[in-house]
Amino acid sequence: MRKSGGLSSTGEPDLAHKDVMTMSGAGYLGFRQLQALPTDPGALLKKLSGDARNVAASRRTEVVVESLRAGIDDATLLPDLGAAIYRAMAELPGVRVVDHIKDAAGRAGVGLTFEGAPKGYGRVFDSSSLVCLGTTDAALMEVGVADRTGEVPAGSS
After folding, report:
1. What does the pLDDT look like over 29-51, one tens digit per residue?
2. How far apart are CA 155 and CA 52, in angstroms?
3. Whole-angstrom Cα distance, residue 71 to residue 139?
4. How many angstroms separate the Cα of 156 from the Cα of each of 24, 73, 129, 141?
5. From CA 96, how far away is CA 117, in angstroms rounded?
6. C-alpha distances in Å from residue 103, one per residue of 14, 19, 20, 83, 126
7. Burial grade of 72 (CB within 10 A; 0-12, 13-18, 19 or more)
8. Which residues of 14-44 are buried (b: 16+ CB within 10 A; e: fewer)?
9. Could you tell me the CA-to-CA distances from 95 to 17, 91, 109, 112, 156 in Å, in that order?
10. Whole-prediction pTM value?
11. I need a labelling partner for 91 at 20 to 30 A (CA). Which of 16, 38, 138, 146 fits?
């Protein structure tokens, strides 16, 4: 389960606006699928690029970035995969690091953006730990693990 905060209609952080979503279904890999991904950044990129081979060349980097982005939050329990995702992103053409960027909750960090991304958009990471905070338009406030589908993780608010 993932909880995130959003932005108000004026673009200010609005932590009262919370999205709670289960991390399953289209766009999310299950734990076993994540475990099966390569932890070598080059091999991971090769796999994801192969998965995006039917996408127009002009959008391929964007699709691979989004595939990597989707895996970042889900790889919380797989540190080797998390590290491979960060390293793979850094190898992609058109991806660049943005200093002094804030997520939707106003938390400062370091960001990653890519060619073709909306102006000002970035994926935001804590500068010290590199934990993903969210994006410039959504803040990842809490991630938890439960024993069963539909169960709320212990200690969640």
Report:
1. 677 888 888 999 999 988 888 87
2. 38
3. 16
4. 18, 17, 22, 11
5. 11
6. 12, 15, 17, 21, 10
7. buried
8. beeeeeeeebeeeebbeeeebeebbbebeeb
9. 30, 8, 17, 7, 34
10. 0.61
11. 138
Give percent of the chain above pLDDT 70.
Answer: 75
Report the Cα 140 to chain-centroid distance in Å: 9
Structure tokens at 37: 């991904």
Rounded CA-CA distance 93/112 in Å is 12
How is residue 65 written in tokens? 């970035």
Domain segments of the chain as ranges: 2-143
Asked whether the beta carbons of 116 and 102 are under 8 A apart, the reply is no
Q: Could you tell me if 43 and 51 are in contact, meaning their C-beta atoms sit under 8 angstroms apart?
A: no
138-143 and 132-135 as β-strands: parallel, antiparallel, unpaired?
Answer: antiparallel
Interval 16-25: pLDDT, tens: 655 544 444 3
Instruction: Report the greatest alpha carbon distance in the chain.
Output: 45
